[in-house]
Structures are given as structure tokens and as C-alpha cells.
Amino acid sequence: MNFSELFKLSALLGKFSPDGKCLASCVQFRLVVRDASTLQILQLYTCLDQIQYIEWSSDSLFILCAMYKRGIVQVWSLEQPDWHCKIDEGSAGLVASCWSPDGRHILNTTEFHLRITVWSLCTKSVSYIKYPKACQQGIAFTRDGRYMAVAERRDCKDFVSIFVCSDWQLLRHFDTETQDLFGIEWAPNGCVLAVWDTCLEYKILLYSLDGRLLSSYQAYEWSLGIKSIAWSPSSQFLAIGSYDEKVRILNHVTWKKITEFEHPATIANTKTIVYKEVEKSPSVETERLSFTSTRALASSRISTQSKYDICHVPVSLHCIKPVAYRANPKMGVGMLAFSADNCFLATKNDNIPNAVWIWDIQKLKLFVVLEQLSAIQSFQWDPRHPRLALCTGNSKVYLWSPAGCVSVQVPMEGDFQIISLSWHSSGESMALLSKENFCVCYLEREAV
């Protein structure tokens, strides 16, 4: 592995472009666009206020910068640096902004979710969508970019409207059998829309493109329900993570449960591989180093190195007891992600914050558990290979593949705490983000 130098960053705003050629990052009110391979600065833009959100257009020709405090969105062009666009929502305010799939329309959600405004960069026309619902995930586009679903709330009831993205005409409008709709998400093939209820009501509903209810699933009642969902890339499976520390897998034929994965505090199955991160003793005797500063630097780098040991089962994992009287308790399956080849599912149970569970989807059983020394901050699958990268808020990046796993120390001076990461579309590099800095990690082609 090779690592770039550290670059300044604000609010974890660092993203590769969809075509993989550029890397955008923000420093306060400045937007920096770099070449993704050389990291040379290609463009430098100055916004009107501190940037709170950025998003690339689907064709990587434009980049959107949202300044929610000011109610302003600025759009920059990579092809024509002199061209600029400013959208001011004025007194209506701004709480969310995103691109449409064609990369030529911007959808702004006003304060109090009064409406969604659709701005066209080509014709300068404006369209409005009323009554959007204030929920975790209220807008969802099909992967082919043809349709958009919007969660709505009117007359104390939940609805979903489906629009055609080419002309923003309403295709279907139907009410949902939810108490308080929490999120919507299309299957990757664009044929089924998953709609799930608030955590107080375990219910997930599956609708067709024409608004027909295909199926509904409810695992239990009178307890905290759904916490996270994830579609498999093939659309064959829907994984539902819930507050009872289980993941339930539904199949795409009958929409019935085919299995459920539990996350016990003790791993007892002898066929499960458990990798445990342990601190590695320094391989160099720092006392022999001549210069004090060199010795201190070496000590800071060497003493915190770690490696993985394979544990003999049974293995007890570090478990925490959630505070029952607080909102959003740290319990249940809060993170889910399928690998790109559909073979593995990675999960994190918030009761056991230091562990990542990797399930074999073909055999429907637990394959590997990684137990870290610190709580998992983020994990993400390589978009091309069955390989998982994760970070735990220290200066290391961890990689797992079916061949094994490795802990890699980022060779940086000072305190570089990685709390987020994102893969390049090629799977050959990834951006490692801390609160104030970022660097790019390049993987050798042999490793890829």
C-alpha cells in the first residue's frame, strides 16, 4: 500500500467523482477538485459560506455545494470554470439538496419540509412537489434514473408518489399502510420499492412500480422494530436489521423470511473464523535510536501497531449494555452492506460495537467475525472485489477478504483519526477521512 500526504478537510466532505477521474474536498468555504490519480489541483472554487454538503452530478461534469444555513446552493462546472450557478431558496430555507439522475436538475427540500423544488439547469424552469415527509430517507431514485419515489405526509397519513424523471410527471400516487413512514428504497433492478415504518412499529412493505402492495412483513410486535435495511446487488435478497439484534433475509419470490442471523456475545460455532485485533510489540528497539525526536516519532508509530490473531472458539466479544431510558439506544443492527458480488453480507450490532460480522450468503451462515480494539466507525465493500475496508477512529485501515485480513498503519505524523472511508470506483484506491484531514490510500495491483 502507498499513502498520499495529508490534505485539509472540513465536515468529512471528500468524494470521488462517479467516473473516478476527480476527487472533490472542502475546506470551510473552498471547494478543491483534484486529479484522482496524481492529486494535483485541477480547480479551486470559493463559495459564499461554509459548505455543508457536496454531491457530484452523475456524469461528473458538475458539482453541487449546499450551504444550508444560508439557504443557498452553488453549482460549479468542471468543463467551464467561469460558468456558475446560484440557487437561493430565500425565506423558505433549505434542509436538503440532491441531484436528479440526469445531472441537470437539482432537488431542494425547504425548511419544515413544506415542499421540494426541482430546478432545471438547462431550461431554468422550476417545479414543485408538495407535502414531502420529514423522514430519514424520503426520496429514492431507481438505479436506471427513470423514476423517483417521494414519501409524503398529508392529512395525518403517509403516501408515496412516483414521478417520471424525464418530465417530472406524476406516474402513481398511493397511500401506505404505515403508522409513521421512516424510509423508502428501490431494489437495484427498479422493480420493487421497500417502505418501512418507524422503529416503534415493526413493518416493512413492498410495492410494485404501479403502486400495488406485493407483500408486507412483520417479525414481531410491541417492541422496537427496524433499524436498517439493505438490498443485495442482484435484488434477490432484502436484509432487515432490527433492534432485537437480528438480521432477517427476505427472498424476492415470495417475500418471506428465508433465514435470520443472530449476533450473540459468544461465538461458539467451530466453523466460524474469529480474527481478534491485538497490539503488536515494537519490532525496533526505540532506545537505540540516536536522536530524541526520531526516537519519539518512531515510538509513536511503532507502539500502536496491531495485527490479527485467529482465536479458538468459544470466543466472548466485548458487549455493552444500552441505556434504556435514552432515545436512540445503542442496540440492534445499525449497519448492513452486501458485497458487490452478492456473496457476503457485513453487519454491525451496536450492542457489540467492536465487531464486524461477515455472513456467507450462498450458505446462509456466519463466515467470519472481526473483533477490533476500538468501536467500528465505518465499513465499506470494494466496488469490484469481495473485500471489506473498515476504520475504528485511529490511524489504521483494516482490510478483509476471503484470503485473510490485515491491519495497516497509515504512516503520518501527528494525530490522524480515520472515521470514514470511501472506495474509488476501480477498487484500486480509497479516501481515508478524519475530521480535519484526508489522505488517499493506493493499493498495489497485485493486491487488487
Automatic annotation (TrEMBL):
Q: Which InterPro entries match?
A: Centrosome-WD_assoc, Quino_amine_DH_bsu, WD40/YVTN_repeat-like_dom_sf, WD40_rpt
* Entry GO terms, CC: microtubule organizing center; MWP complex
Name listed for the protein in its UniProt record: WRP73 protein
SMART domains, alphabetized = WD40
What is the native source organism of this protein? Centropus bengalensis (lesser coucal)
